[in-house]
Amino acid sequence: MSALDRPWAINWDVTYACPLRCAHCYSESGRRASRQLSLEDMFRVADALISLKPQSIQFSGGEPLLVKGVFQVAERIAQAGIPVILYTSGWLLDERLVADVARIFSQVHLSLDGATAKVHDTVRAKPGSFERAMKALGLLNEAVREQRQRGGKVLTFGIDGVVVRSNFHQLEEYCTAIVPRFPELKFLSLGAAVPSGLANRPGYADHELLTDDQLWLLGSGGFTRYLQTLAPASVKVSTTDGLLLQMHPDHIASGRALRGLMHVEPDGAVRSMPIYEGTVGNLLEEPAQVLWERALARHLDPYLAETLGPVRTMKEWAKAARRIDLHYGSDQVRARIFLRQNYRPPRPSDSGILGVVRRTPPPGRDLGPAHAPVH
User: Fold this and answer.
1) Could you read off the pLDDT of 77-120 as tens digits, one per residue?
2) CA 155 to CA 173: how far, in whole Å?
3) Going by C-beta distance under 8 Å and a sequence separation of 6 or more, which residues neighbour residue 170?
4) What CATH number is given for 9-371 in this structure?
5) Cα separation, 197 vs 195, whole angstroms
6) CA 215 to CA 226: how far, in whole Å?
């Protein structure tokens, strides 16, 4: 059996509804129709995904906790023996919901895009979102503590941070000021924003996508090990530069591209690639395996190699991503792209030690495939 005969993981954006308005949002959630399915059709999509037998299915969005029946759908998948992972902002998590979250999901990734309210709330464009995230982490921490005392299943939870220029100087503070507050927390994942959705708008690469030097530092193993020394020993710290999502032709040829991740839109449409526009069909209309094979074939399209082959910098990647979105996107997608407003940066915040990276990459190091680190 080939490693790509089926996806190793599936990300399902179960809704585009969202209470936040993140400037980098890959799916433009909260700014477009939710495209949520009825509960009956969500079960149909869930069954189609189960048939692929992935190692895990991730519920993302938008905000999954806004979806009526989301726990029933997650439980159906979990009962089939497939771990279900929740990605949430924590905005809606309360004492009532946390019990079901801890009971049904195997893992929870809580989004935190800054180590202070000022930075996080600016990146997420929602006053009070940092406070809500801290409360949610506290609720998860208490739920896991109680699970551990009772014995049996124990939820794993941690923090996911999207790294942009506005919060780059706070990466150390995540480890020293945030993580130690929650003794049951098990991971801190810090990943560079990639030029997808709103993050590839003109202007965003100039102001918020990481500089090439920052990206190099975030992707270096030495920097990850440094951050690990700052965090409690019980917490695994990981960092990623996101380059393996790029689908660079050399990454594909070498087997390093992240091709085993299937991405499903709220209405059951399957994307050919997780971070670029363009679908290959709908799970409500065609077999899941057929759509998976069609998505894999798209990865080998000569247009993709022609567009991404010359990319060596983050700004070049952003331009290439816009071309890919317009090429593979539907007429409706292209209309939405043309209506996007150019990015306007917020007022500059104070920079810490990591605010400006002066480190020079080794000779020949760029965003090209030859030196892209593998995580």
Assistant:
1) 999 999 999 999 999 999 999 999 999 999 999 999 999 999 99
2) 25
3) 114, 115, 116, 119, 352, 354
4) 3.20.20.70
5) 7
6) 16
